[in-house]
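Reply to dn_fold:

You asked what the input looked like. This is it:
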Amino acid sequence: MSQVLERPSPTQQYTISPLGAALGAEVVGLDLAQPVGAELIQLMKQALNQYGVLCFRKQNLTEQQQIAFSRLWGPLEDFPEENKTVAAPTVYNVANVSAEGEHLPDTDHRVIFQKVNALWHTDSSYRYVPAYASLLYGIEVMPAGAEGGRTGFSSMVAAYEALSPEMKARIEPLHMVHSYEHGRRVYGSLPPLSNFEKNAVPPVSQPLVRVHLDSGGRRSLYITANAGNEISGMPLEEGQALHAQLVDHIARPEFCYFHTWEKGDLVVWDNRTTLHKAEHYDMARYRRVFRRTTVAGKDPVFGPFSQAVKAAGY
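and this is what came back:
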């Protein structure tokens, strides 16, 4: 795909170039530590809607600068976890390193939480109104030549479009149960949810097919592997088998882009239309430190039979 030159912002020139065939683009030339206007954010939102994932190269952001830039995209989510934030409830320390700089053993529950992120997922799917976008900033990344440590992304739009007509018809009325507690089923050594966490994010049911009213009724899959594997209204084993089939489907290479991190990358992804996962790496050997902020969504997930979808004529 050829390079695309977007309009300059009022103060900065930049280019947007595709990174993968299915999704992803890199943005070069912007300094996000400098003031950013509403016009530029609107252009970036349009680019995110087109590409699903944007990587802003060569950034140097403090925590407060990342928070300030993230808030330009919309209100930020508070994380439900009581003990994994850094200095603000809107910041999540995605790392095998403590906030004090200690390289943690892979038996530490803070590291095990990172292993949960190695399953395909979309952020905050366990909320009634899930997240719009996530912003992940690379502070300590894997050295050149090291194996693993990338972040994989999968286009749920492309994955849905590639389904057979029979599968589309089968999943159209179905929902999946999304639970923040599911990670404890996968990794039983994790501490149980506190009452605060249980009250903050109770399980929700989301449609398997998501209809995007702001994109002309475009459809995508909406599933996750780290927040559940049960399909509402189906016998347990049958629903889990369907879930596993769909997870295998979205992992096909033609739907995916795997991002090799460089220090200073700020990667923004659209949680409504993409899944992502952390790629396995030698956690005992390598330090890996990222800082994440998450922009809250505006609407619940609308399925094909939602009243809002019917009213819109989709």
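Confidence is low (pLDDT under 50) at residues 1-5.
Hope that clears it up.
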